[in-house]
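Predict the holo structure. Ligand: succinic acid.
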Amino acid sequence: MTTHSSDVLIVGGGAAGLSLALRLSQDDVSITLLSKSELTEGSSLYAQGGIAAVLDGDDNFESHIQDTHTAGADLCKDAAVRKIVEGAPKAIGWLVEKGVKFTLIDGAEYDGQDSEYHLTREGGHSHRRVIHAKDATGREVETTLEQHVRSLPNVTILENHIAIDLITSEKLKGRSDSRCFGAYALDIDTNKIKTFGARAVVLSTGGASKAYLYTTNPDTSTGDGIAMAWRAGCRIANMEFVQFHPTCLYHPYAKGSLISEAVRGEGAVLRLPNGDRFMDQHHELAELAPRDIVARAIDYEMKKGGFDSVFLDISHKSKEFILDHFPNIAESCETYGYDMTSQPIPVVPAAHYTCGGILSDLRGRTDLKRLYAVGESSCTGLHGANRLASNSLLECLVIAESSADDIRQLLKKEESPLPKLPQWDESQVSDPDEQIVVSHNWDELRRFMWDYVGIVRTDKRLERARNRVSLLQEEIIEYYGNFRVNNDLIELRNLATIAELTIECALTRKESRGLHYTLDYPASREFAKDTILTPNNFVSHAPINEWGS
Ligand code: FAD
Ligand code: SIN
């Protein structure tokens, strides 16, 4: 049994994890990067619309800041919003320098930093300010970053390694300094659990939308980092704010195929099955209202009319325009038998983004010393009660840079070597007798989260979900205690924690605000307040005290 040691352990290879690795690699820092699937598999790879940034002379930071606050329903932390919005042009410049090719305006040519980029529009933005690479921005960003990170000699990339739990002072005899020393991870190919020690640990594990039956997210989004941090004693905030994307292709085999908001930004309208438009009855910005409003309006119209879906229609634009702007989305629709250039396509809302997460400051620091959280797994205060479209990749990029700066400072300090870390103990467990328990519980959890903790909530539905999750957790704990772990079980255990935290936050909020809408309390309270959950093993002498700044 050995401990794999490095200066920094990064868990997750999305936009957050890769940017951080790249930022840190300028120094002589040894990094281990774990990814539970292939390196690039995660939400970042599938991002479509783009990255919000003030890049146009007619636009300004105050406007982007105001739009972010408006979408966030008075719950965004102003310091977080300002830092991230004002950091956007530099972050985009960094990506361009790394080789990311954003779409140019018609007829323009590449000339490095001063190129004239096409900016698209998305819901809640009062200007065109979303820079993109056609309709596959995430792929362009993620694969460019991947190429750089793979070529770095000081980064050890371990794919198919799923982190299970953090190693903290609590697990070490005689230590009471409330810090993180590393993590245990399962090597999925060999079925062996390894111990990773590090002077700093970063959770960049993405969101938790797989807790829902219908989601735009890939299979990796099971909230592992959030659940691990909670178990390790960190506070978790605002989990009730689950963002449902309004337009996901409706087809039995499409498995969460997103239709970017940029399609509406470029003129698409939403229609009922009879062809009537309806968004103008719900908000003055109609199809370009903030996402929570559009998703709720669709949900309302579907329930009222008993429809399976509504329809998104951009067929009034020329075929050339549609294929030029949305080549990948058009191809994906065609795979399922829809021609978006000539017909409206059926769409439904689906779980898309986790606004809450590990409470972290603007350097990614969490309650636990030497544990950082960056990207969708974190909650910096940027998104408040509802994320503004295309602010997420931006947050990954800006916070990765400031976390790298903080970690660099930390590593400069003299310190004694890492203590001997306890190895994972498998002496009391056997191989699982049947896997059906795990797959059944996966399905049940995702279904009750969809039915009872979805777009429209009530206390009764939430209580029902709470009872179900507590029964599931009993079963999972028993199973976990008796059998050797595998990745399905690790993820199920985390999803159950995510469900518990989401329900707890939702029951705490006795009002409707942003993405949390409850029929029992339809109005917003006068003052906006965060929902912060504190674990039983929270160590009060170590908390960050500047959340959102
Ligand atoms: P991810 O990119 O999800 O990466 C998480 C990584 O962690 C993965 O490598 C995963 O394998 C790994 N991981 C997770 N758990 C473990 C574990 N236990 N052990 C080891 N590794 C683990 N945002 C925008 O700003 N603009 C957009 O246009 C946009 N479009 C989107 C379209 C889609 C379809 C989706 C799903 C999301 C979109 N978003 C968009 C949101 C945005 O893509 C994500 O919020 C962002 O990419 C999250 O980046 P991340 O690095 O935090 O996580
Ligand atoms: C989209 O392209 O609609 C997704 C953008 C986002 O989630 O920010």
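The mean pLDDT is 94. Residues 246-352 form a domain with the Flavocytochrome C3; Chain A, domain 1 fold (CATH 3.90.700.10).
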